[in-house]
Amino acid sequence: MFLEIRFGVLSARYLPGQVISKADVAAVYACRPVAVAEVLNALTHEGYLTRQGRSDFAVRTWGREEIEDLFEMRANFEGLAAYRAAERATAAEISLLDALALEARERAPGDPDALERVVLENLRFHVEVMRMSRITLMPDMARMVLPNALHRRIVWSQRADDAEQSFRMHQKIAAAIGERSASMARLLMREDIYSSRESVLGAIEALANVEANDVATIVRFTPTFELDGRVYGQGTREAGADGRVIPFGVPAGNLR
Fold first, then answer.
1. What is the predicted pLDDT for the residue at 240?
2. Is the CB of residue 237 less than 8 Å from the CB of residue 148?
3. Which end of the chain is more exposed for a tag (fewer CB within 10 A), N or C?
4. Rg of the Cα trace of the chain?
5. What are residue 220's phi and psi, to 5 degrees?
6. Any alpha helices (H) in the chain, and if so which ranges?
7. Any domain includes 115
């Protein structure tokens, strides 16, 4: 249920602002309302949905200014993380980062598993740099400015050239950290963050112009989905930029 609803949001089957009815979800998936609430709360925590009132949910609407602000904040704090990583990382950590950068592969348009590798490899690289910075507040900051929904939107919005540029940039960042060139590491990290901003803004603005019913029609999804000539898969639940996976069953009040 979680993966399919997330898939529906990312593939624009469920559009920004549309209400996701708990009763409709429960009927389609033949499960108890409490199980639906747990899944929708987790999707809300990861940035795919928003709460409406005490019990309703809707697909999250991202505004241009909000996206621009998030990218600016992320560039600032991940740039600092790269700077500190160049100063503080151990030789073993630098070796791991080099390996992560070299493992990155361009996804094949018809291979949904390749896209999932890009999602996970990209996130792992950025999480590792933040961990190497040894800034104690970094996980909390990452959770606020890089929700899972935004990270997946970034990867899904990339063209082949964008992805290749990102892979090369990660290798340059890893090299700068390995050379203890803190200023260069920060500059490259900021450039890497900004490189995906326009493609994400374009994807968000395209969705804003699509007419939609007030309430989404809940459907079941096949394991893969073709969109604009590319094949996407549902993937798995992965840890967010703060390194945590929020389990189902956590009270809604603890997900804020």
1. 84
2. no
3. C
4. 19
5. -90, 150
6. 2-10, 22-29, 33-45, 64-88, 91-103, 112-133, 138-145, 148-157, 160-178, 182-195, 197-208
7. yes
**Quick check: is 206 in a domain?**
no
Dihedral sign for Cα 87, 143, 224, 196, please. Answer: negative
Q: Decide if 226 is inside a domain.
A: yes
Residues 161 and 234 grouped into a single domain: no
What's the domain range around 11?
A: 2-60+212-241
> DSSP assignment, residue 221?
-
- For residues 97 and 129, the answer to whether their CB atoms sit within 8 Å is yes
Residue with tokens 């361009």: 106
How far apart are the C-alpha atoms of 131 and 103, rounded to whole Å?
Answer: 19
Percent of the chain with pLDDT over 70: 92
CB-CB contact of 80 with 113 (8 Å)? no
Main-chain dihedrals φ then ψ at residue 49, nearest 5 degrees:
-125, 170
Is residue 124 one of the residues assigned to a domain?
A: yes
State which of 79-83, 196-200, 240-244 shows the largest mean pLDDT.
Answer: 79-83
Residues 173 and 53 in one domain: no
| pLDDT tens, position by position, 37-66 | 999 999 998 999 999 877 789 999 999 999
Q: Assess whether pLDDT exceeds 90 at residue 220.
A: yes
Task: Give yes or no: residues 189 and 72 share one domain.
Answer: yes
Tally Cβ neighbours within 10 Å of residue 249: 11
**Domain holding 53: CATH number?**
1.10.10.10
* Cβ density class 69-79: b for 16+ within 10 Å, e for less: ebbeebbebbb
